[in-house]
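$ ./design --mode recover --in tokens.txt
reading tokens...
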């Protein structure tokens, strides 16, 4: 029996996490949870009936910092010890749009890597990874305009002075979505490259959207990345960046239900959802998947 691992990072909203877990609770799944210790989420007495739940030690995860990559590596390392067919990276702001039976059936004989690439953003990837971005691992960064402005100024200064850490390494940076569904073979390869990942992306900006894409494109796995010929989205996710706000994708509401129904034909997961914004859409999706297996 080919099993899947769900790797979840979480910060808050216990009720929504419980709803997500109820949709992942399947005899062919295990769930790994990495909690941001800065948040309000309590994970005591979380239980699953059909899946095993592994809760990793929490630590502070800062937006844009290397700690975001560390969280992913922690999850991959913990799950890799049990060798799964696929590893799905999500957050507790995500929801599946189809049943687990549908996901397993589609991926049963697949060996492709479902990783998103955005070639139009290569210059942005270079900006995030080639320069040293300071102050990110700091609880005041997102709330302090002066600190953010100082970081930006120091990056500009590096550019003027010709400080670019890719000059020595000759790295060609690529970018795309943080969220993926990948095979055990790729997970093993990622874990052998942890020193390179840390040396290359320490003090980089939001390189959870860069490190995997860059690593894949310098490896044989670049020939195994899923394309759009299957009719599915490249990473099996539906995320709306056209209506983004403050560097965050659009949060879906009940008025978007038909849009999500259509998206479910080409994507298995969607983000972003938040009960404080619209609890009805979360409840509707959870009930539909539980009762019918489709939206």
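writing sequence...
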């Amino acid at each position: 029996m080919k099993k899947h691992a769900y790797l979840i990072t979480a910060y808050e909203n216990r009720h929504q996490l419980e709803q997500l877990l109820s949709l992942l609770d399947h005899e062919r799944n295990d769930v790994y949870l990495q909690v941001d210790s800065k948040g309000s989420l309590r994970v005591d007495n979380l239980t699953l009936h059909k899946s095993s739940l592994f809760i990793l030690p929490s630590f502070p995860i800062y937006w844009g910092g290397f700690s975001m990559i560390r969280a992913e590596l922690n999850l991959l390392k913990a799950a890799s010890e049990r060798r799964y067919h696929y590893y799905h990276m999500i957050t507790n702001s995500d929801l599946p749009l189809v049943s687990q039976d549908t996901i397993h059936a589609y991926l049963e004989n697949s060996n492709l890597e479902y990783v998103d690439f955005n070639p139009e953003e290569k210059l942005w990837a270079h900006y995030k990874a080639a320069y040293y971005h300071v102050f990110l691992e700091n609880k005041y960064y997102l709330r302090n305009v002066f600190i953010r402005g100082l970081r930006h100024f120091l990056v500009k200064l590096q550019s003027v002075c010709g400080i670019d850490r890719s000059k020595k390494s000759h790295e060609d940076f690529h970018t795309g979505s943080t969220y993926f569904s990948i095979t055990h073979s790729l997970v093993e390869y990622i874990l052998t490259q942890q020193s390179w990942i840390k040396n290359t992306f320490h003090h980089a900006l939001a390189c959870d959207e860069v490190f995997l894409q860059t690593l894949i494109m310098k490896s044989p796995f670049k020939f195994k990345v899923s394309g759009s010929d299957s009719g599915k989205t490249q990473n099996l996710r539906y995320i709306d960046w056209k209506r983004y706000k403050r560097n965050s994708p659009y949060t879906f509401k009940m008025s978007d239900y038909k849009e999500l129904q259509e998206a479910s034909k080409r994507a298995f997961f969607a983000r972003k959802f938040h009960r404080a914004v619209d609890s009805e859409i979360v409840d509707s999706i959870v009930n539909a998947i539980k009762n019918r297996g489709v939206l």
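exit 0
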